[in-house]
Specification:
The chain has 299 residues and is an alpha/beta fold. It has nine helices and five strands, in the order ααβββααβααβααα. Strands 1-2-4-3-5 form a five-stranded mixed beta sheet, with helices on both faces. The two termini are 24 Å apart. The structure holds zinc ion.
Length: 299
């Protein structure tokens, strides 16, 4: 097991210098500065106390079994706040789980979706989700804003979506950089796996993809052919009126990506989304980024 350097996962008490990523990649930092941390961590301090599984080391990578155990323990230690929701199955029949985090309310609540680990080899992504959950649970009783947020909103956090791929990436050195799911391809070759991030019903098969099973960005035999993508779709569709924000966490490229990653189709609130990003990152904003397509950047 390879420990990562502590400084990469040290959230400071202010947002200005937060750095959540590895390999010099600032995209997660900027992404979360914009969408989550500004209101979540503005007053938080890194503290060891608070409800969390004892002895769980947030400064190293954990395998799937450890992460599953961590989820169970969190639920046990935070009853009424943390609930495990099982919402689908992987190709290899592992149960996909998320943590629902929120405080009871008589009002109808809104929600934020966050998934990590859709690309197996991006280990910092699940590590980030775990640390994010820890920070929320550490601070909601002390920080009024976080407490208020949990009263008005639920967080749906999937620490590892591509569980099969993640387990495979832990197998040995030769599998460490596995990215896709573990379902067999349909190209008549021996190549396996679909890029789950490119299997959703959002301009499926149009830009930044490959139809070759051996490609890292193979988009699957059909739209939503992968049970993992289908599970997310079903869960979110059933709650479309409550979900305010959908975040998916990656660790590659110096990019903040907003819907829809297509040269001709822009989200209705594109300008608003961009306005939330820090000025320095906005300078780099360039619609041509999406025009280039996604083949070359493998986010
Ligand atoms: Zn990725």
């Amino acid at each position: 097991m390879k420990n990562f350097e502590k400084p990469y996962l040290n959230f400071p008490s202010t947002m200005d210098t937060a750095d959540v990523d590895i390999d010099g990649d600032k995209s997660l930092h900027t992404f979360f500065s914009s969408y989550v941390f500004l209101f979540c961590f503005s007053n938080s301090q890194r503290v060891a106390e608070g409800p969390e599984p004892r002895n769980y080391d947030y400064f190293k990578y954990h395998n799937m079994s450890e992460i599953s155990g961590w989820m169970e323990q969190l639920q046990k230690e935070n009853q009424g706040v943390v609930t495990i929701v099982r919402y689908g199955q992987t190709y290899e029949e592992q149960i996909i789980k998320l943590l629902k985090i929120g405080l009871a309310s008589t009002e109808k609540k809104k929600a934020i979706w966050m998934d990590c680990g859709i690309h197996a080899r991006e280990w910092i992504s699940p590590a980030f989700c775990q640390y994010f959950v820890k920070q929320i649970l550490d601070t909601y009783k002390k920080d009024e804003k976080i407490g208020e947020m949990l009263k008005n909103m639920d967080l749906y956090v999937t620490p590892v979506l591509n569980m099969d791929g993640y387990v495979y990436s832990w197998f040995n050195q030769s599998t460490r950089l596995w990215r896709k799911s573990r379902s067999p391809g349909n190209c008549g070759d021996s190549c396996m796996g679909t890029d789950l991030n490119r299997n959703f019903d959002a301009n499926w098969g149009s830009v930044g993809i490959s139809r070759k099973c051996c490609s890292e960005v193979y988009n699957g035999a059909t739209v939503l052919s992968e049970s993992e993508a289908q599970a997310v779709t079903d869960f979110v569709k059933a709650r479309s009126s409550e979900i305010l924000c959908f975040l998916t966490i990656h660790s590659y490229s110096q990019l903040i990506l907003v819907p829809y990653g297509h040269p001709n189709i822009t989200a209705p609130n594109y300008d608003e989304l961009v306005s939330l990003t820090p000025e320095k990152d906005r300078k780099d904003r360039d619609k041509s980024d999406s025009e280039k397509g996604r083949e070359d950047r493998k986010d």
